[in-house]
Amino acid sequence: MSIESLPSSTRSRLAARVSAVPASGIRKFFDVIATMPDVISLGVGEPDFTTPAQVVQAGIRSLEAGRTHYTSNYGTLELRRGIAENLERRYGASYDPATEVLVTVGASEAVAATMTALVDPGDEVLLHEPSYVAYMPAIVFAGGTTVHVPTRAADGFALDPDEVERRVTARTKVLFLGYPCNPTGAVLPPEALRALADVARRHDLLVVSDEIYDRLVYGGHQHESISALPGMRERTVLIGGFSKAYAMTGWRVGYVCAPRDLLEGIVKIHQYAIMCAPTTAQDAAAVALREAEPDVERMLAEYDRRRRMFVDGLNRIGLPTIEPRGAFYAFPHVGGTGLTSEQFSERLLFEEHVAVVPGDSFGPSGAGHVRACYATSYEQLEEALVRIERFLARL
Ligand SMILES: Cc1ncc(COP(=O)(O)O)c(C=O)c1O
Predict the structure, then answer these.
(1) Pairing relation of β-strands 370-373 and 329-330?
(2) Which end of the chain is more exposed for a tag (fewer CB within 10 A), N or C?
(3) Same domain, 272 and 300
(4) Are the beta carbons of 17 and 330 closer than 8 angstroms?
(5) Which H or E element spans position 150?
(6) Contact 93, 83 (CB under 8 A)
(7) How many domains does one find in the chain?
(8) What was the pLDDT predicted at 3?
């Protein structure tokens, strides 16, 4: 239920920080989509693939073995070890699985618990936009103030370290990074990542880095973790998860890694609010890390094939789209149609049954864009292009 739909007597009983966050702009579209047949949904940000079979089997085995109890608040040691080894091997980011890795209920819980643990009322959090819809509410629910740093299509939606530094004040506590970026597909270039690390060190900022799309990077670009840069480990909280790369959205497993003193605070929030991530899902995730690499590579290659066709197609039919280098979203500019993002999305849904998300749901700089997720079949994407082209021709 949205805040707006509550009776006013109820609304006034809610905490001010809850009322301060508008209801999700995306939700309204999903409610409509659910009632329409033959919609091609490019709206939801989740893999169309099902979880690799050996991972599903691991979950079943876990249940059959009677592993139906709580785990440690931190998660199973097996999974924490797997996460730490993976981060060390891929990015050179080193964490002690015993005290510096926490398994969470998706990256979603990791974001919320981290903000609650780090942010005091009045603290400012620097956040690039457009960015994932859950970041700003997590900051506000923790009592913090979001200071937006705009990014623009003309710069490939890259975050400019000078723009970040210009917004640092005595109250700035955290620099929040979400790259590869939902919704723009931007990946931070190595120089920008280093310059952002310099800003964080110079102003003694904490960095919270949501790297859930770390494995979904294309075209020879590489993901780097800011936590592995010199002097950054002690000031970085690294968030990741299994939903995207392993097609495990429904299992709800994510993680947060941080130096021990910071992680202890985050664990405190987690242990009282959540207890532990689901045991079945943790056992499956441990097997995903060990055995599902070929599946990740297969899905990645297929996303890349779709990405190239779909982005070329959008540009061809007249919607300028920068090349997304990571995640699985295209962020075409629709402003040339004379419609706002919301009008475009609404009319496209009702007239051609294609669902996309208005770009300004992700921050003011997303205005004039829409987000289209290409984690759906190649054929559906081809059909979506036919429908969008027909829609454009009618305008
Ligand atoms: C950038 C980003 N972070 C976090 C999440 C949440 O992922 P999870 O399923 O692990 O909670 C999403 C999901 O869309 C996302 O796009």
Answers:
(1) antiparallel
(2) N
(3) no
(4) no
(5) strand 145-150
(6) no
(7) 2
(8) 45
Statement to judge: residues 14 and 129 lie in one domain: no
The amino acid present at 129, given as its one-letter code, is E
**270 and 314 share one domain:** no
132 pocket-lining for ligand 1 (C-beta < 6 Å) = yes
Mark whether 107 and 189 lie in a shared domain: yes
**185 and 267 housed in the same domain:** yes
Which ligand 1 atom lies nearest to the CA of residue 132? 1
CA contacts within 13 A on the Cβ side of 369: 28
Determine the Cα angle at 238 with ends 145 and 115, to 5°. Answer: 25
Q: How far apart are CA 333 and CA 25, in angstroms?
A: 19
pTM above 0.90, yes or no: yes
CATH number at residue 225: 3.40.640.10
Q: Which atom of ligand 1 is nearest to the CA of 109?
A: 11
Domain that holds residue 343: 7-51+294-394
Ligand 1 atom 16 nearest Cα: 182
Q: Which residues of 286-315 are buried (b: 16+ CB within 10 A; e: fewer)?
A: bbbbeebeebbeebbebbbebbeebbebbe
Residue 371 and residue 26: Cα distance in Å, rounded? 11
What was the pLDDT predicted at 2?
47
β-strands 357-358, 354-355 pairing: unpaired
- Which residues 6+ apart lie within 8 Å of 53 measured at CB? none
Shared-domain flag, residues 176 and 257: yes
* Cβ–Cβ under 8 Å, residues 165 and 198: no
Angle (nearest 5°) at CA 288 between 282 and 292 = 175
Regarding the beta carbon of 108 and ligand 1, being less than 6 Å apart is answered yes
Instruction: Give pLDDT, residue 388.
Output: 98
Q: What is the pLDDT of residue 5?
A: 56
- Ligand 1 binding pocket mutation candidate from 46, 132, 211 (most atoms within 8 A of CB): 132
Confidence at residue 91, expressed as pLDDT on a 0 to 100 scale:
97
Q: Which portions of the chain are predicted below pLDDT 70?
A: 1-11, 25-26
Residue 88 inside a domain? The answer is: yes
